[in-house]
Amino acid sequence: MTDIARSLRPLPLASLGERGTAVPFTTLQIAQMRVRPGSDRNSLALAMPGIAGSTSYVVPWKGVPDLATLTMHDRMLHQEIEATMAITPERVRRAALKVAATGLAGPQAAEAAAAGAFADRGEAQASYFFATLEAFRALGLDRAELVAAGRGKGGWQALARQRLTELATQQGLDANHHAARVVEIARVLAPIGLPDAPARLRRVQSRLIAARNRLLTWISADRTEVTELGRAAVIAADETLALSTPAFEALDQTLADLGPVLAGWPQNFRALQNLTSGIGWLLDGWDFVVAIWERHENGSAQDQRDTVLQIFRVLPTMPAVATPVDVRKANPAERQKEAPRTRQLEEWRTGRHELEQLAAIEGVKAQVMRGLPPLPGETHE
Amino acid sequence: MSEDVLDAIEQSLENLSEEKFIQVLSLLNGLPETARTKRLYDQARTRMQRLRPLRRPTLQRLFCLPFEDLLINVRKDGPQPDGRILRNAMASAWRLVLEAPSFDLENMEGRLRECAIADKDAEEAIGRDLWRVGATQIIALFRKGDAEAKRRDGPLGPNGLWRNDIAQIGRALELGDTIQGLKRKLPPAPIRLLDEESVKAMRWAIVGNARGDSGKVFALLSVLMVRVSPPALLLERLAGQDLGIKGRERLDVMTWLSSPLAADLQARSASVAEARKGSSAVAGAAALRDIALALLSTEGALVAAGTGKVLGEQTLAFRDGIKRGLDETLQAARTAIAQANGEDEPTAAALIEADAQMIALRMCSTIAPRFGKGTDFSEALREVVKIGQRWLNTDLRALRMAGATAANEARRARLYRAVRMIELAALPTDADAARRSVAEGLAALEQEKAEA
Questions:
Q1: The pLDDT value given to residue A324
Q2: Contacts of B362 in chain A (CB under 8 A)
Q3: What are A's interface residues with B at a Cβ cutoff of 8 A?
Q4: Which pLDDT does position B6 carry in this prediction?
Q5: HEC per residue, B212-272
Q6: Are the C-beta atoms of B301 and B236 separated by less than 8 Å?
Q7: Residue B4, Cβ neighbours under 10 Å: how many?
């Protein structure tokens, strides 16, 4: 369908794939760095952003453990990603949930991973239900009957399969024709959900908008060198939203009538699939940014500045769009970071931040895996 | 202005448009300070902070630039640290400027209106004129001698209460250019690491501009100290340097500077008590470690500055406080670890608590040796490793023997927990060895299952 195809064109899928997927490592030095395809088909690489994504350094995946002393959690996640060749946001999330569930990143992360996996399953179910409802409408089947069937064994799922099979047989099609397609549509919608049943990525989008606005307010009140880094974050958010918002609109338009998708199979389904995976790529990494900002935005001024610095380091900037700030040279905060440390008692002074920061990262990670909560007043499930 | 008008302002302060709000502010600035206007000002402060980038600074604010970091409100909980300036004294100094015969308020306000918003250079040029007038006025005031100081409603405050504050303002105004220049050169506050370049810039400024005047050296160091965290860091770095003053004078300056250090320690130890009251063991340990570092820094600085005895008793009290904190941390960690590793399967809350306590234990173990608690902490950490190793051995063996699957799930979880324990309590290589043995053990199990 041309509408879907048109709305899809502006999504720079290829370059987003090149940007890679943020990996929720807990080791400070590589936290939120991105996994992407390596130089040959069977290899992976880690992309480490330069300042504001201006240049990025690519390290072969096998070399990652040499970059820093990895936490045990990260060693396992590193292996898991390689074993499953996880490069898409959905696959990296699955790998991250699996590894965190072991408890290697602490009991809180383990609990959050279990909760996150549970929520994912619930949202997949909800997507399946609502996608089936939409398909019933498009195919002229009785939706009231489906709603009345309820959950559980012999509930709506069985009924849906039965009705879709009957319809296909009537139309002289393969019995599984409609049912299989509905399952496919529900699968690609699962991380996003429908307008009536928002799932994880819809919540990331709405929280990103809210966080971006509050960050903008913060910028206008803060007048330090860090302010510009906050501005870079707002710009990156705007660039993301400029693509993700229309993508959501196009998606919702498509979902309002699944008829063309079902009729124009497989081209129109592929367009839908590109739209959903595009949204996934676009919003990748923002859940972490939003979560740390929400954690610290009400903290002390220094806390807020430290957070903006941290956000800046992991900012999911849009590929190929240069962010117009050159902060490295002018920024005394950067200089301070690089300042030679010549103090006495050096060893226990430098070692001291790491555990605290690890604990902080693990906390944010737990929050991200659990999924960002909906905004007050936002519909949820 | 009548009380009615003030009532109206008070009620609508939040709802005024930006432009009106700024107009009201400048009106308020011109009013004599009363309890009423002060309350209005406090009320407006939040909004002022929000609007900061949009509004043009007032003349009074430009006047305060060199010493704004030193301003404090009246302290109820302790003596005023040397070098800090009461807001009331600042208001009095500003009145001196307004009263100066050479000062033309209308002309100055006109100049300020003419400069573009956020044009810092133009603003500072106006500020420089204000500083000159202020410094001259204050020097003249002190020339008048004691009679002035004893005047009840004089500029030095009731019974000369603000004498030191006004003197400090005077010195800061004389050094206004130097101070503003330094602020631009140094990293933004709080400065946590002082690089060579910064230290050199400070020393040059002190030697070149205070020129052996111990009061001015003190004023400069006071302003700088507020921007460094912990403040003792500054003293530590500058103590060994030639600051252009010697002997008795030097010792005086160092002694004055020790007073804000004590206040800083006091504030920090209050925050430790606060954090330790809260629920998170990690935050408590971080706070404890920070105060310990500040104390060590302070002690080092005082020794370097030759004023070791000044804070002697106070630092001793802080030391005791830290030792108590370390003991409590140790005790809490031991209890939580024992609870999470008993015979019964621990609750989720117990696991979370033990994890946080192990992190706290490890964090504090870095400072413990400096307070005579090194052995206790390393023993506690060794104990954690021992428990971890025990789980590794028993659980891997039990899993190999197969059996009930429900218990196996718990055993698997405990294996990974053991790896985490070793990671938190020992070296990464030890933890990695544990992780490998778990991975290999579990893989072998899978293999056996597949073959069976």
A1: 30
A2: 355
A3: 69, 71-72, 75-76, 102-104, 106-108, 110-111, 220-221, 223-226, 302, 332-333, 335-336, 339-342, 344-345, 348-349, 351-352, 355-356, 358-359
A4: 74
A5: CCHHHHHHHHHHHHHHECCCHHHHHHHHCCCCCCCHHHHHHHHHHHHHHHHHHHHHHHHHH
A6: yes
A7: 8
Cβ <8 Å between B352 and A107: yes
Predicted ipTM? Answer: 0.81
Backbone angles phi, psi at A337, to 5 degrees: -65, -35
pLDDT in tens, A158-192: 999 999 999 999 999 999 999 999 999 999 999 99
A-B C-beta contacts closer than 8 Å: 87
Which stretches of chain B sit within 8 Å of chain A by CB? Answer: 49-50, 52-54, 186-188, 190-196, 282, 286, 289, 293, 296, 300, 348, 351-352, 355-356, 359, 362-363, 366-367, 413, 416-417, 419-420, 423, 428, 431-432, 435, 439
pLDDT top residue among B269 and B342: B342
What pLDDT, on the 0 to 100 scale, is given for residue A374?
62
Query: Does residue B265 belong to any structural domain of this protein?
Result: no
**Model confidence at A195: pLDDT above 70:** yes
Q: How far is CA A301 from CA A58, A221, A352, in A?
A: 35, 10, 22
Question: What range defines the domain where residue B447 resides?
Answer: 373-452
**Chain A residues touching B191 at Cβ < 8 A:** 336
Lowest-confidence pick of A346-350, A354-358, B122-126, B436-440: A346-350
pTM of the model: 0.75
User: Cβ separation of A72 and B289 shorter than 8 Å?
Assistant: no
Residue B224: inside a domain: no
With bands split at pLDDT 50, 70 and 90, how would you rate the model's confidence at B156? Answer: confident
Task: Tell me if B50 and A359 make a contact (CB, 8 A cut-off).
Answer: no
CB contact under 8 A, A106 and B355: yes
**Residue B255: what pLDDT?**
81
CA distance B410 to chain A (A): 11
Q: Chain B interface, mutation test: which of A348, A350, A364, A370, most B Cβ atoms within 10 Å?
A: A348
For an interface test with A, the pick among B279, B363, B414 (most A C-beta atoms closer than 10 Å) comes out as B363
Residue B362 tokens, joined: 């490890």
Angle, in degrees to the nearest 10, between helices A286-296 and A301-313: 170
Residue B421 belongs to some domain of the structure: yes
Asked if residue B249 has pLDDT above 50, the reply is yes
Asked if B83 and B258 touch (Cβ cutoff 8 Å), the reply is no
Q: What is the pLDDT of residue B162?
A: 86
Residues in chain A with CB shorter than 8 Å from the CB of B431 are 72
Asked if the structure places residue B400 within a domain, the reply is yes
| CA angle at A56 for the pair A50 and A60, rounded to the nearest 5° | 130
Smallest Cβ–Cβ distance between A72 and the set B54, B352, B423 belongs to: B423
Q: pLDDT band at residue B239, thresholds of 50, 70 and 90?
A: confident
What stretch of H or E contains A197?
A: strand A197-198
CA angle A305/A290/A309 to nearest 5° reads 25
The answer to whether residue A338 scores a pLDDT higher than 80 is no
How many structural domains does chain B have? 1
**Pairwise CB contact (< 8 Å): A302 & B193:** no
